[in-house]
Design a protein that fits this description.
There is one protein chain. The protein is mostly beta strands. The protein has one domain: Rieske [2Fe-2S] iron-sulphur domain (Rieske Iron-sulfur Protein). It has no helices and 9 strands. Strand 8 and strand 9 form a beta hairpin. The chain is globular, with a radius of gyration of 13 Å. The two termini are 14 Å apart.
């Protein structure tokens, strides 16, 4: 799915985001997962597994993937692509901006 085009919203300070430890934020009524992957890149995707209504922020981050803790579906954090069943639909990716040490998500 394409990245969102809405105005960016402040999420947190860059120093609050640790590698492999996702943060869940609700922005304009939508739950978003924000994480720094193993390569140091900050990623943001919708936080709800497309297979079931489950928060991915409670799942497992490995490399640039997130795995749903409930049923094991894995998603690519860069593209949103569903990598394993039971999920067969991608996550929506979100645009990240960093200004003056603050992280913003659209």
């Amino acid at each position: 799915m394409p990245a969102s085009t809405s105005e960016p919203s402040l999420v947190c300070a860059e120093t609050e985001l640790r590698t492999g430890h996702p943060i869940r934020k609700v922005i304009d009524g939508q739950a978003i997962l924000i994480v720094r992957d193993d390569t140091g890149v900050i990623r943001a995707v919708d936080d709800t597994c497309t297979h079931a209504e489950i928060s991915l922020a409670d799942g497992f981050i490995e490399g640039r993937t997130v795995e749903c803790w409930a049923h094991g579906a894995r998603f690519d954090l860069a593209t949103g692509q569903a990598l394993t069943l039971p999920a067969d639909r991608p996550l929506t990716t979100r645009r990240i901006e960093v200004h003056d040490g603050m992280i913003y998500v659209a």
